[in-house]
């Protein structure tokens, strides 16, 4: 509550002044609240005296009622004073909170100002341009590295020829496994120019069908 911001004797004096004011008001408020309870007890006591003597001793009963009325008037004034002191305490506390809030806001403003010192929109644009420039340079470096692979390079044409040779060998092996040796040997032994294309799968399938029919016919004639 009393943590005022700012330095110097003036700030300390304001802090002590507000604190002392509230302490004095609370002490007075405590006294008035005790007085309120005491007056209420007296009013209750005089009321009991009046009731007790209302039929037997009217003089005593009237005197008790007069004292009761007087105490009630005093009670009303005391209650009003209590309300005034409570309002005053609330006002001082609110003023103190406002003062501390403004002090915090002022400190925050100074902090933001210090953070932004030397920082302008032009400066931000300059920094962003530098960042973008470095990112672009990084991309160029990566592209340069990946565009020049390390190690021995091979001719694609040679690789294609080797692949075709492997395909032909697989085809010859499949034909041998099916028992069609003569035809397979003929195909395997045929000279193949270096520029000739491999036999297509469709042509091989047709020749396989013809060979199968020929074998079937030879079997029938043997019977």
UniProtKB/TrEMBL annotation:
Name of the protein in question: Vacuolar-sorting protein SNF7
InterPro entries in the record: Snf7_fam (IPR005024)
KW RNA-binding (keyword) present: no
GO cellular component: cytoplasmic side of plasma membrane; cytosol; ESCRT III complex; multivesicular body
GO biological process per UniProt: ATP export; intralumenal vesicle formation; peroxisome organization; protein transport to vacuole involved in ubiquitin-dependent protein catabolic process via the multivesicular body sorting pathway; reticulophagy
Compartment list: Endosome
MF terms (GO), sorted A to Z: identical protein binding
Stretches for region Disordered: 188-207
Keywords of the record: Endosome
Family: Belongs to the SNF7 family.
Gene3D superfamilies noted in UniProt: ESAT-6-like (1.10.287.1060)
């Amino acid at each position: 509550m009393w943590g005022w911001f700012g330095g110097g004797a003036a700030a300390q004096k304001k802090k002590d002044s507000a604190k002392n004011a509230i302490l004095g008001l609370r002490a007075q408020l405590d006294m008035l609240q005790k007085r309120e309870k005491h007056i209420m007890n007296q009013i209750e006591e005089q009321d009991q005296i009046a009731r007790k003597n209302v039929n037997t001793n009217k003089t005593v009963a009237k005197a008790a009622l007069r004292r009761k009325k007087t105490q009630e008037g005093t009670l009303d004034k005391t209650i009003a004073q209590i309300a005034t002191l409570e309002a005053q305490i609330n006002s001082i506390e609110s003023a103190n909170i406002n003062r501390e809030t403004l002090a915090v806001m002022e400190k925050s403003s100074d902090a933001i100002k210090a953070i932004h010192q030397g920082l302008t929109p032009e400066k931000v644009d300059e920094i962003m341009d530098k960042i973008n420039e470095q990112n672009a340079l990084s991309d160029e470096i990566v592209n340069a590295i990946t565009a020049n692979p390390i190690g021995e390079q091979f001719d694609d044409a040679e690789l294609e020829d080797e692949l075709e040779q492997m395909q032909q060998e697989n085809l010859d092996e499949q034909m041998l496994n099916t028992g069609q040796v003569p035809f397979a040997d003929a195909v395997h032994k045929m000279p193949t120019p270096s520029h000739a294309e491999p036999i297509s799968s469709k042509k091989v399938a047709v020749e396989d069908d013809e060979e199968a029919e020929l074998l079937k016919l030879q079997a029938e004639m043997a019977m």
